[in-house]
Structures are given as structure tokens and as C-alpha cells.
Design brief:
Blueprint lengths: L30 H23 L5 H17 L14 E4 L5 H11 L5 H5 L29 H20 L11 E6 H5 L1 H13 L4 E7 L2 E2 L2 E2 L8 H7 L3 E6 L3 H12 L6 E6 L22 H10 L12 H31 L1 H12 L19 E2 H15 L3 E5 L3 H4 L18 E3 L4 H14 L3 E7 L3 H14 L4 E5 L17 H6 L5 E3 L4 H13 L5 E4 L4 E2 L18 E4 L6 E5 L3 H14 L4 E5 L3 H5 L3 H8 L4 E4 L8 H4 L4 E3 L10 H7 L4 H12 L1
Parallel strand pairs: 1-2, 2-3, 3-7, 6-7, 9-10, 9-11, 11-12, 12-14, 13-14, 17-18, 17-19, 19-20
Antiparallel strand pairs: 4-5, 8-15, 16-18
Length: 690
């Protein structure tokens, strides 16, 4: 097929590859001809990287190169010499399969990504993995790949920008003033998580959020018409977005659309750019084969010939292109230098705000954080969701970096702190986020806030709905993002709502995820310490599991202090002549204590171990863990499935839990029917001991 939408400059002034000395290729080109040379450099770098790896997705980089070039060289506000500049624009490649587009741009702009890194695309321990992975040192703002997640991340970044601008800017000094840019494709727009995110973005009027929709009509299986006929512009308009439709290969149209989007302050913007996937490939452009397969050696040569490129050149970056991107680096350095001057003036004029800025960006928390926790009345049993809300209120008062909310459930999760207002179009400084009934998007948005920096995000919902967040939790775990999840209604003791709302497998499923810390506090006094543990965890997400039902408050004059939660596990009650160790988590710790009392009365003394967090426990020295668990027979009680408990019980330990889904009834009835009573636990232990 002929080169689609090919301008005369694509053929580079009529020269053929055989006539061109590679060392001077493109020399003397200016204006549109130089722009075309730069765009084709992006395309051929992507083609070469995928071909060398014999794996990857060349189609999107070839199709999006025009828009990406215009954005990165004329409008994106960034400084490759300092990828962590706080007020840089954020760029998200939501369609992460097109990663070589991003890698080519990062290399050309001068980020620490070399040609050799491009040659090592998709190879062991390379800096250019198959999908972008969060690494601010390289200029990669977030991990993308699962489609739609990046769109949600971008909404979180835009929320973070709006909030920090409201907190720190003054009429004289706008020290937070940047835009979040996104490239997404048909796949992202089909995923439900993206729809949830764009719905919330439109509702909130996030004016510094711009999406470029690579509208190429192709997915892996073929033409999008196989399964997709949405009127996408109408959908975005209905959700409150400013929408433009352009030819995605017309660079001046791209520039005009970007400027129009920048002028819209009260709505996020969508630029729908019609493109040809695999632009430049004479035989594969516009087909699904170019989406996720290398072009093949013959088609690579044919494509380079079609683009007027030296057919035998690999990973070629002409000197003229490097000089063009030198301008990007100079402008970026000048932009940050101007901001540094502005920032210094602001810091001098507003020392109190400057101190808060430092705390935000350095994640500085009060040294005496535990002293800020509310006192717990030992005479008043309470649901840990309620004590968790009390702790959150106290911590938000002294840690202004914390913000978050619920997926329409804060009356149940107790995470709305009224003193801090509701984030909205008219109150950007507020710290309570209302995600609506959008758990998928909530998880992705929290990740975006964490990636943006300067804030500590949390989100809450019923624990059973952790399944709705799971893709985002996994992305947070991969990226080691310090996101906090508050999951309430943490067991079958939800009761009347029935098995659809009663988590039995969710705790086990989170515990098997690398880098996720799961904490199930045993009583109200431990719940505040669970929050402290979460705030201290800067290397991954933390899930705090809280009860709906009331739990007794342990008398800490008799038992070790609740700060022991930070060790993940500890001996709650020691028995010198013990015959076994009873292990519990969460609400079942009190049950284990009560069962131990009954067993002791029967002449079977038992040690009781509280194990609120396996992950924190595993970080302790082996000697400590051995001392806590002891060498006696072990039995564990948890109102969930057994999976994972083998690590502490071995092949022969007793597990008292659930091997089925729950039921609808008052929680006291469920406790009796499923054997979670002191009498039932004691009887099962007695029978097991024989």
C-alpha cells in the first residue's frame, strides 16, 4: 500500500537512501522538513527496537509520532536534566504497549536513556522493559500496560496538581502550575476503569488534564468494529469534557488542538486524533498485524525506504535531530530556572507555607506521631472501623499530606473527616475525596496521586470490593507506591448482607501479592498503630482491614502494648506450661483469648499469639519470630480461608476458618453456625489434641 497521508518532506527532498551518507543524513534540513526527519527518527527507533527484540508493539509509536513530537518539543514543560522537578508537566502513556514511543522521546530529549538502552528493549534487567515502569530518574511517570490504568493514574495526578495548587499558590506566586498529558487508545477507552475515571474527571472539572486519543480503529483481533461502535466524542462530551477531533498526522492541527485545550480551564480535554497504526509501513499500516508484532526484516527495509530512510541504518539519530532536541533541553532548563526564581521568592515571602511544602514533598511526619493517637476507653468496645476513623481524624490534623476518601461508603468506612471539607470544583484545598461508586477508578487514581508526589493518598470501601481494586493494587505493588487502603466489613461478621458482601478469600488473596502489607488489628487500640504502620511504609501499598462489629478493648495493663503491632506479631498471652499456641488475627484474637480461658479451665493451657500482619512479622529477625511462634503445636483461627496459613501451621497444624462462602444472618448467628465461638474453638482444639 502507499504511504498514508505522506507529505513531500517524508521523501526528504527526493533523495534515496543509497545517495545518502548516514553521518550527514538530514543535514541542512529546516522547518517542516526537519520536523519530518525528527518524527521519522521516532518511528524508526521504535521499529528498530521492536525488531531487534523480536517482540513488541511498533504500530502505536509509528502512528502517534506526529502528535507526540509536537507535544514533547513545543508544549510539554519538562527538564530532562531534572526529572523530579516538582512543577514539571506529567506525561502518561496509558497505552503502555507502545512503550518504544516513550523510550525514543526520553532518549532524544536527553533523559538518562541511551541508544544501548533502546537496543536492549525487553531484555533482562534492561531500562526499557516491555511496558513502562515507574522510574522518575528516567522520566517515566507511572507504570502502564493494563489498559485504562494509566488514564486513571492521570486523573489522580490532575487531582494532586489542583489540590497542591490550592494549598500553596498565592496571587503573586503560582508555584504549582502544570498539566497532565495522556496518550491512550481504543483499548483504554473500552476498559471500564477508564470510563469511571473520565466520568469523575469531568465531574470535577479538571482543566489541566489533556487526553490524546490515538483513534486508529485497530485492536489485536482486527478492526474495532468487531466489538466497539461507541460514539466516543459524544461520550466524553456527555461526561463534561472539552472535545476536539483532528487528523492526528497533521502536526499543525495537533498544535492548534493543544493550544485550544490549554485555553480551557474548567473542563478536561480530549483531542481525538485519527491516525494510521503503523504509519509508514507499506504493507502493514492500518492492519492488526502491526499492533503487536515486529514488522519483520523485509518490511523494516520497505518501511525505511518508504520513509526515505537509509534501509541499512539501525538506531540512527541524525545530527540534525539531536540538535533539534537540544533546543528542548535548553528550554526545559530555562523553564525550571524561571520556576526556581519564582519558588525562591515565594519561599521567602511565605515561610510557613514553605515549611509545609517541605513536609509534603519529603513526606515528613511528626516525630511523636503515636502521641497524637486518640485515647481508647478500655470499658467501651468499638468496631475497628470506628476507631480507625478516630485515628484518621487525629492523624490528618497533624499530617496535612494525607488526603483520600471512599467509593460512596464513608458513612460505613468512617473515613470522612468533616473538618477538611469535600474536594470539588469550588474547594480544591479540601482533603476528602468522593470517588463515587467507582472502585476501579479509585484504585488507579490513588496510584496517580502517589506517583505525582507531595501527598499521601488513601481510599476506602468494603473489603469484599477489594476485588474491584485488584488491578490497581497490583500496579501499586509493582511500582512500590505508598498507597493506603482502608477495607472495612472485613469478614463474614458483616452478617445480614450475606455472602456477596462477606469476604472469606480476600485476605488470603492480598497476602499472596508481593510488596503488599496487610494489617488486621485485633482491637481499637491497635487500629491507630495500624495507621502509623501504613504511614511508615514507603515501599509499597498497605491494606488496613477493619471490622463492622464491636470488639473488646484489651487491657494493656495485662497484655503487651498495641505498639507491638509494628512487629507484625507478638505473644499476647504467655503460659509457662502451655500445650499449644493459639494464633489469631483481627476480631478472632479476642476469640482465641476466650477459647484459651476455657481450655485452661480444662487443664489445657494455651499461649495466644496476635498476628495482625504477616508481612511486618516476616521482616522481624528469625530469632524473634521463632520466640513468638514457639515450638508447641499450633492452631490458628481466622474467619477466612486457610490459604497461606501453611507457613505458620505446617502440614499438621489446626486451622479454624472458612471453607465456603458465608450466609445472610445476624453476625452472632453466623459465629455460632460457623464455629467462631469460644466453646466451639475450644472443642475443636481439644478434639485435635486427642
Amino acid at each position: 500500500m502507499a504511504l498514508p497521508n505522506c507529505s513531500p518532506a517524508t521523501k526528504l527532498l527526493g533523495m534515496t537512501p543509497s545517495m545518502i551518507d548516514h553521518s550527514s543524513f538530514g543535514k541542512g534540513l529546516t522547518g517542516r522538513d526537519l520536523d519530518q526527519l525528527c518524527v521519522n527518527t521516532i518511528r524508526t527507533l521504535a521499529v528498530d527496537a521492536v525488531q531487534k527484540a523480536n517482540s513488541g508493539h511498533p504500530g502505536l509509536p509509528m502512528g502517534c509520532a506526529d502528535f507526540a513530537y509536537v507535544l514533547w518539543t513545543r508544549y510539554l514543560r519538562h527538564n530532562p536534566a531534572n526529572p523530579r522537578w516538582p512543577d514539571r508537566d506529567r506525561f502518561v502513556l496509558s497505552a503502555g504497549h507502545g512503550s518504544t514511543l516513550l523510550y525514543a522521546l526520553l532518549h532524544l530529549c536527553g533523559y538518562p536513556l541511551s541508544i544501548e538502552d533502546l537496543r536492549q528493549f525487553r531484555q533482562w534487567e534492561s531500562r526499557t522493559p516491555g511496558h513502562p515502569e515507574f522510574d522518575l530518574a528516567l522520566g517515566v511517570e507511572t507504570t502502564t500496560g493494563p489498559l485504562g490504568q494509566g488514564a486513571g493514574n492521570a486523573v489522580g495526578m490532575a487531582i494532586a496538581e489542583e489540590h497542591l495548587a490550592a494549598v500553596f499558590n498565592t496571587p503573586q506566586h503560582r508555584v504549582v502550575n502544570h498539566t497532565t498529558w495522556v496518550i491512550l487508545g481504543d483499548g483504554c477507552n473500552q476498559e471500564g476503569v477508564a470510563h469511571e475515571a473520565i466520568s469523575l474527571a469531568g465531574h470535577l472539572g479538571l482543566g489541566k488534564l489533556v487526553f490524546f486519543y490515538d483513534f486508529n480503529h485497530i485492536t489485536i483481533e482486527g478492526r474495532t468494529e468487531l466489538a466497539y461502535s461507541d460514539d466516543v466524542p459524544a461520550r466524553y462530551r456527555a461526561l463534561g469534557w472539552h472535545v476536539q477531533e483532528i487528523d492526528g498526522h497533521d502536526r499543525e492541527a495537533c498544535a492548534r488542538a493543544i493550544e485550544a485545550a490549554q485555553a480551557v480551564a474548567d473542563r478536561p480535554s480530549l483531542i481525538l486524533g485519527t491516525t494510521t497504526i503503523g504509519f509508514g509501513s507499506p504493507n502493514k499500516a492500518g492492519t492488526n498485524t502491526v499492533h503487536g508484532e515486529p514488522l519483520g526484516a523485509d518490511e523494516v527495509k520497505a518501511t525505511k525506504k518508504n520513509l526515505g530512510w537509509p534501509e541499512d541504518a539501525q538506531f540512527l539519530v541524525p545530527d540534525a535531530v539531536r540538535a533539534r532536541f537540544d533546543e528542548v533541553r535548553r528550554r526545559g532548563a530555562e523553564a525550571e530556572a524561571a520556576w526556581n526564581t519564582l519558588f525562591a521568592a515565594w519561599r521567602s515571602a511565605h515561610p510557613d507555607r514553605a515549611a509545609r511544602w517541605d513536609a509534603h514533598w519529603n513526606r515528613t511526619l511528626p516525630a511523636d506521631l503515636s502521641a497524637k493517637l486518640p485515647k481508647v476507653d478500655p470499658a467501651k468496645p468499638a468496631a475497628t472501623r470506628s476507631s480507625g476513623g478516630d485515628a484518621l481524624k487525629a492523624l490528618m490534623a497533624v499530617a496535612p499530606q494525607i488526603l483520600g476518601g471512599a467509593a460512596d461508603l464513608h458513612p460505613s468506612t468512617k473515613t470522612y473527616i468533616k473538618e477538611h471539607g469535600s474536594f470539588s470544583k469550588t474547594n480544591r484545598a479540601a482533603r476528602n475525596l468522593h470517588f463515587g461508586i467507582r472502585e476501579h477508578a479509585m484504585g488507579a487514581i490513588l496510584n496517580g496521586i502517589a506517583c505525582h508526589g507531595g501527598l499521601i493518598p488513601f481510599g476506602s470501601t468494603f473489603f469484599v470490593f477489594a476485588d474491584y481494586l485488584r488491578p490497581a493494587i497490583r500496579m501499586a505493588a509493582i511500582s512500590r507506591l505508598p498507597v493506603i487502603y482502608v477495607f472495612t466489613h472485613d469478614s463474614i461478621f458483616v452478617g445480614e448482607d450475606g455472602p456477596t458482601h462477606e469476604p472469606v478469600e480476600q485476605a488470603a488473596s492480598l497476602r499472596v501479592m508481593p510488596n503488599v502489607t496487610v494489617i488486621r488489628p485485633a482491637d481499637p487500640s491497635e487500629t491507630g498503630w495500624a495507621w502509623i504502620a501504613a504511614l511508615q511504609n514507603v515501599h509499597g501499598p498497605t491494606a488496613i482491614l477493619l471490622t463492622r462489629q464491636n470488639l473488646p478493648v484489651f487491657d494493656r495493663a495485662k497484655f503487651p502494648g498495641p505498639e507491638n503491632l509494628l512487629r507484625g506479631g507478638y505473644v499476647l498471652r504467655e503460659e509457662p506450661a502451655a500445650k499449644l499456641t493459639l494464633i489469631g488475627t483481627g476480631s478472632e484474637v479476642a476469640l482465641a483469648l476466650a477459647a484459651a480461658e476455657k481450655l485452661k479451665a480444662e487443664g489445657i493451657p494455651a499461649r495466644v499469639v496476635n498476628l495482625p500482619s504477616w508481612e511486618l512479622f516476616e521482616k522481624q529477625p528469625s530469632e524473634y519470630r521463632e520466640q513468638v511462634l514457639g515450638k508447641l503445636p499450633r492452631a490458628a483461627v481466622e474467619a477466612g480461608v486457610r490459604t497461606g496459613w501453611e507457613r505458620y501451621l505446617g502440614a499438621y497444624g489446626l486451622f479454624l476458618g472458612m471453607d465456603r462462602y458465608g450466609a445472610s444472618a445476624p453476625y452472632q448467628v453466623l459465629a455460632e453456625k460457623f464455629g467462631f465461638t469460644p466453646d466451639a474453638v475450644a472443642a475443636k482444639v481439644r478434639a485435635w489434641l486427642g
